[in-house]
Design a protein that fits this description.
2 domains, 17 helices, about 65% helix, about 0% strand
Amino acid sequence: MLFNSFEFVLFLITVYFLYWFVFNKNLRIQNILLLACSYLFYGFWDWRFLFLLLLSTLIDYGFGLLIHKSENRKKFYLWLSIFNNLIVLGFFKYYNFFAGNAQAALELMGFHVDPWLLNIVLPVGISFYTFHGMSYVFDIYNNKVVPTKNFIEYAVFVSFFPLLVAGPIERASHLLPQVQVKRKFSYQQSVEGMRLILWGYFLKVVIADTLSVFVNDIFANYKTLSGSTLVLGAVYFSIQIYGDFCGYTNIALGVAKLFGFELLSNFKYPYFSRNIAEFWKRWHISLSSWFRDYLYIPLGGSRVNTAKVIRNTFIIFLVSGFWHGANWTFIAWGGIHALLFIPVLLSNNNKKYTSEVVAANTVLPSLKETLQMSTTFALAAFAWIFFRAPDMGVAVDYIQHIGHGIMQMPTKRLGMAYVIVPLVIDWQQRWDERKVLAYRSTLVRWIMYLTLGTFVLAYSVYNQGTFIYFQF
């Protein structure tokens, strides 16, 4: 069920009415309602994968209890849980990748094989709900949370429908306590939620889906286009994937607020970053912090010698790239970011911009800040070419063609409006990613509501594309 579909709007209105006006006096019934509706939401894609979601939930629920109760076999149960999660994830998401590459390697050595390949679609959201469960058992093992004995509560934590298929990747210490306590209706929270939903729909339906037309055309015909047009293609995709994924996240955060929940932030205006380290503190925050806490730090983080720091950095970026998909392009994308991140890390500039907002006390950035943001955006856009390309050959060929000629297709310039508009509005609200469209003037707020709403309705007639991160 797509967020940008009429079915979801009806689904949301129905669940909201039942949640606050029928079952509002009983927490257990509310949680059962959320769980049932979350499974209905997920089953709308393919009901057969509901069993996979349930299996994943049961595995981590059971191992969480075993790890907590055990004194001598905690590590054994932890590794068994990790093994089970990775087997499920690896089989459905990476089996064909490894089988295909093994076939290619054997054929290079003169052996011909015909491997058995899976002929099924990737279960939607499997990477996200698998990481939800793994973080739960990690936190129990590290004594950060106590496992719940209430299976319904844990199942809601794993499968809460706003975040089920594309995050953010929640932590048990943050979301589970909210599941366990009675929620109270808050008018202010609901208003903030509706603003996030409206802005999310605008980013997705108006910006991302429109730019996807330009991007698809450019990447499909890159051999016949000028270098400057290909540069536009990289810029357009940078904004497309931001509008698509940040749009989804805003809708997810907004819907969660309607039900009294606060989810983790996933985006904090990443294209206003002054170096690549700041970019990763602002882009897909729940995933980057997951790898930091559960992979980078256990490997020694930056507390080890320089060689191991470089090793650890490459590991988390390469694994992060591979998490996104079973394709060498994603691994290359992760490797590029590792190469960009390491100089910042070794020069101790990775913590330079940890909390302050760029141009916090001025209307416009300084020349230095402008150059820093432009450089960071250009580097990120370059890496996005690999993320978008269907294979490594196309990615490399695309980059080689960038040096050819001048602009030959002026119509492609029309897409710049869809780049400028979201960046300008984001710049105005860059202090707090959760306070979108919260202008002081009531008149200005309602002008923005009506304008954005009108565009969303108009564009939704022909822009109903799926979300990019659903494939991960």
